[in-house]
Amino acid sequence: MSPRTRMLLEGPIVPTLLRLGWPNTLVMLAQASVGLIETWWVAHLGTDALAGMALVFPGYMMMQMLSAGAVGGGIASAIARALGGGRREDADALVLHALIINGLLGLVFSALFLVWGGALYALLGGEGGSLQAAIAYSHVVFAGAIVTWIGNALASVLRGTGNMLLPAVAVIVGVALLVPLSPLLIFGWGPIPALGVAGGGWAVLVGGTVTMAILAWAVLSGRSIARLRPARLRAALFGDILRVGAVASVSTLQTTLVIVLTTGIVGRAGGPDAVAGYGTGARLEYLLIPLVFGLGAPLVALVGTNIGAGQRERALRIALTGSALSFAVCEVIGILAAIWPATWLTLFGTEPALIESGSAYLRLVGPAYGFFGMGLALYFASQGAGRLLWPLLAGMLRLAVAALGGLLALHLTGSVGWVFGAVALAMLIYGAMLWWMVAAGVWYRGTATH
Question: Keyword annotations for this protein (predicted)?
């Protein structure tokens, strides 16, 4: 057994979580900053460009969450359980299976958004200049979707072994390249033409390619406990990844649908300016996802490895401890955003409608961020356990309360503010329900004890 695997099985919980979590939090914040950097520069192109990016952003974040958090979590969970159970050959074979799964999904994602992306953005309220900007940006970032999917497969392999530092380094290098490249391609300089909002998409694609190349080098050069080797393809290993990844993908779609449907409701009620405001405010909510993923990826590895080794009580303690840490961090962020919403919003624009819509969202939804973070942490822990039924049910309830409740509130009051109230209530129910069920031991019901 490698020293890293032994640390996952025997190390003190909080210090081990923090030790594994800090590089992962750093990498996910760096990855999330890609969207913030892009938004800041694109905001200089006007409200239409900003609204166009707000229309594309849910789909782009959905791709990131699916490839890194959902299917990526399935990859990390399968490798962690294999290593925890002493199945080193299976762990190696899972690397090849992971790359095949994510490669195919990347191609499917490109086809879907290149063909139907424009129609989707129109349904969400895009029109005129905002719709044109959305299509221009979308065609670039989704044409290179396979780069994101393969890169996140490689990162998940490393995280499943407990190695959080190498993925962090790879993503930070890609983001560092994005910082000068984004304004260069958006506004042009010297012989380089100004590409407008599409230039931001090209900058994201170049940065992602560099990140993928570094991660490929790390796995292929033997710096991973689980290594890419020639292996016979086995349905059982595909199933080991997809059993977790497919169900987790449904949970990810639920999270994205909340944002997409709320965007549509706000767009119909207030037009492109209100969409820009809500989209800018909701970026802070999306920022919580990679922030929680900083603890979530270690939770997948820790819970999966301990369950693979039969240490169920320790796995449950790890999950509840991680969810408490996540609640505290996200609640602080939410309360600060609710008190000073303009501090965040004015980073991206000063139009009155943008500030009004975004402030209404942050004041109502910000105080519920802690419950959202707690639920997300338990979702990642459930990936490690290979038990995703309850996160799926909690996510369905959240979607129903946010979407149907939001529509009902708009119909009865005509106020977008009540729509945001439904979103906040949905977050609270999601986190509280999932904590209660995991603490009650739903992971282990109907299974033999060790």
Answer: Cell membrane, Membrane, Transmembrane, Transmembrane helix, Transport
Q: How far is CA 69 from CA 28, 212, 297, 383, in A?
A: 11, 16, 8, 9
H or E segment at 346?
A: none
Q: Please determine, for residue 44, whether its predicted confidence score (pLDDT) is greater than 50.
A: yes
pTM for this model (two decimals): 0.70
The confidence band for 450, taking pLDDT boundaries of 50, 70 and 90, is very low
Residues 6+ apart with CB under 8 A from 308: 80, 81, 82, 83, 84, 85
Contact 49, 275 (CB under 8 A): no
Sorted by sequence, the CB contacts under 8 Å of residue 447 that are 6+ apart come out as: none
With a CB cutoff of 8 Å and minimum separation 6, the contacts of 431 are 327, 370, 371, 372, 373, 374, 375, 378
- Report, as an integer, the average pLDDT of 69-83: 85
Domain ranges of the chain: 3-444
Which two three-digit tokens encode residue 273?
């300016």
Q: Give the DSSP H/E element, type plus range, for residue 153.
A: helix 145-160
C-beta of residue 442 within 8 angstroms of C-beta of residue 421: no
Query: Which pLDDT value is given to residue 448?
Result: 46
